[in-house]
Amino acid sequence: MMESNKQIVSMSHTLFLCLAVGVYSMSGLFTKLAAGYVFLSFSYFSCLAGVVVVLGLYAVLWQVALKRVPLSLAVKSFGNHVI
User: In terms of Cα–Cα distance, which of 1, 57, 60 is closest to 27?
Assistant: First the structure.
């Protein structure tokens, strides 16, 4: 009989991964908001700066998540995200 190598992820880790995906989705909101402003205006650059900040925060959250959860499980939970 083969042993199952199932890895269990706690609820807090799952919620943390969901938070990271939620932060990532905010970058789409900033780009959509930037599309409504005149190209190269201050508001346009402010929205793009928001995108950079959100993606930087997402990168940090993802690295913290990978310290706690194996990559194979983290990618599975991220798999329902549409790019």
Answer: 57
